[in-house]
Structure formats: structure tokens, C-alpha cells
Amino acid sequence: MDLTRVVLPTFILEKRSLLEMYANFMAHADMFVSITAGTTAEERIICFVEYYLTSFHEGRKGAVAKKPYNPIIGESFHCSWDVPKNNVKASTLTIAKDQSKIHQAFETCKDSTMDSEIYNVRFTAEQVSHHPPVSGFYCECKERKMCVNAHVWTKSKFMGMSIGVTMAGEGVLFLGEHDEEYVFTLPCAYARSILTVPWVELGGKVNIHCTKSGYSAAVTFHTKPFYGGKVHRVTAEVKHNPTNTIVCKAQGEWNGTLEFTYSNGETKVIDTTKLPVIRKKIRPIKKQRLLESRRLWELVTNALKVGDIDAATENKGLLEERQRVEERQRASTNTLWKPKYFQKEGDGWVYYNPIWKAHY
Asked: Helices marked H in 63-179 — which ranges?
């Protein structure tokens, strides 16, 4: 059963919009900016995989699964992070065989620190379509000439005692300092044991690839076997396709400990629960536009905070009904919805002013 048009009960909601949940995947913004600091294409894709595997735990915190608000069409979310430049460094792994490049990378970081102590990372998300439900999000660090653009079409369905959510679509990471693009996909999410104590796991195979460098990564999020087995397991393999060489392997739990093994025999362990989280900066609700997520859902959130399910349900229903009325009005006049921040390109959606369109 497709749940796209099903209104779920208010008590299972968490107090944030899906658009804000996407922003929480950027909680380790220093690891994101560090991708472009890699001195070789091999380092950069490994840094991207390290960031990718550690990005999900902050967006899906909490032992009990709850569902973010379904964004209404035209809803947007904006935030930013201040990333200390001292936290952004080229990898010190010896896979970087050209030591002069390492020295150059550190000198570049050192020189730029004289101008400012932080990099600013800015995020914008918008609900660009209601049927089907499609979100676009864009994140950039202008100073390092890098950005990520993605569109996600969420499709939900009942699966016995579970609800499965497919996150169709793709994202593109652009590194302007290296003229590289990394195309990636996203895993599926599952809410298990929905009639008792629901919990979330990720599942499925995703891919990351860079056509220019010839590197790619295959990532598998393993769902728990019916009998025994661990939960939240993930494995990954990074390959240089022209030479068919595996340069990195990873295994562990996406919300726990991850172990990376590199082609030179070195290993690294990352405990996602101990990674420092950079808090996102958001304008006060009173200064937000009417369709910005926290202001739009303010009454629902406030009611949920005090446990007033009836008030939360009423205010949620008013927003959903307003969306239906406006949709009928557009249909009667044959008017298409025009997003504010994203434009349709082929099968996807692209931010109206991405870094790759700028001239450096």
C-alpha cells in the first residue's frame, strides 16, 4: 500500500520537518569541507565516503522511530554552520604519495586562516512538488568553491509490521577547486515494529562515482536478518575503475563505530557517537518567512512539546487542508507551481544559482 497520500496520526510525529532532517545530515560540516582538502582524487573520494557514512546518525537520532512533518509545497528551510578552519585539513594518510601537494594544501589552509577563522557553510531546502512529494536541497561553502545539490522523492509503503521509505533521486557533490563531480544516491529507510516500539534502520545499495577521476564507491546498508545478526550494519568498497584496484574498505555501524582499511595497510576507526557536532545557525522564528519550516509548523511543534495531541492534530490539519485548497485552485486555472529556489532540469531539480555556474 502506497502511503504517499495517507495522513498519519499526529502522535507518531517528531518535532521537525523533513527539510530540517536533511539539514541535520550536515552536522559534521567540518568533514564535508575537508573533502576538497584532499590532495589526490583517491583521498577526496575516500574523504567523501567517510563523510557520507558518518552523516546519517545525527539525522536519525533517538531510540524510538518518529516521522518528521511532511513538508507542504513551497515550504523551505535555511540554516548555516560556522566551521573552524583548524578543523579542515588535508588527509595525513600516506596514500598521498606527492608530499609537495600535502605541503601546498596545508600552506593554503594556513594562509586563508589569516583572513578569517571560519568557513561558512550555507544550506537551503525546498519542497518543490507535492504529488509526487519531492524535496530539493543545496549546501555550499563558497570560500572552498564546493557544493552539493540533491533532489529526493520519498515513496512510502506498508510492509507488514514495517513501513518502508524509498528515497529516490540523486545528489551531486561539486568540487570547484578540482573540477570534479561526485554523483551519489541515498539508502531506503524502514520503521520496524510499528505496533509496539518502532525503530529505524537503513537498507539497500547506494553508489558514489566520479567520472573524471574514475573512482567509485559501492555502499551497502544491511538490514537485520530475521533471526540473529547485528542491526545498522554498513559496508563499503572504494575502487579505482581504470585499474580495477580496491583502495579502501569500510565496515561497521552507521550509528556506531566504523572501521576503514586503506590499500597501504593503514586503518582508521571513527566512532560516530563521539564525533563533534557543529550546531546549525537558524534565524529566530519571528524573523522567518511564513513558509519557512519552523515558523510554518510552529503551532504544531509547540503543541507536541506540551503533549497536546488534539491541538497539534488540529493545526496540522489546517496546514494540510490549506495545501489541498491551493492545489485545487491551481488545477482549476491550469497553473503550475513554480518553486522559489530550485529549477527543473531533466528528471531532477537544481538550485537556481549553484556554485558551478559561477565564474572563478
From this structure: 99-113
Instruction: Report whether 263 contacts 247 (CB < 8 A).
Output: yes
pLDDT value, residue 29:
96
Q: How confident is the model at residue 60 (pLDDT cuts 50, 70, 90)?
A: low
List C-alpha distances in Å: 343 to 118, 151, 335, 352: 31, 11, 16, 6
Cα–Cα distances in angstroms (integers) from residue 233 to residues 53, 87, 227, 251, 265, in the given order? 11, 28, 15, 7, 23
Instruction: Output 227 or 243, whichever has higher pLDDT.
Output: 243
C-alpha cell at 318: 489546517
CA distances from 143 to 38, 120, 152 (A): 16, 8, 27
Which residues are CB-contacts of 103 (< 8 A; sequence separation ≥ 6)?
none
Q: Has residue 332 got a pLDDT over 70?
A: yes
- 78, β-bridge pairs: 124
Q: Is residue 109 over pLDDT 50?
A: no
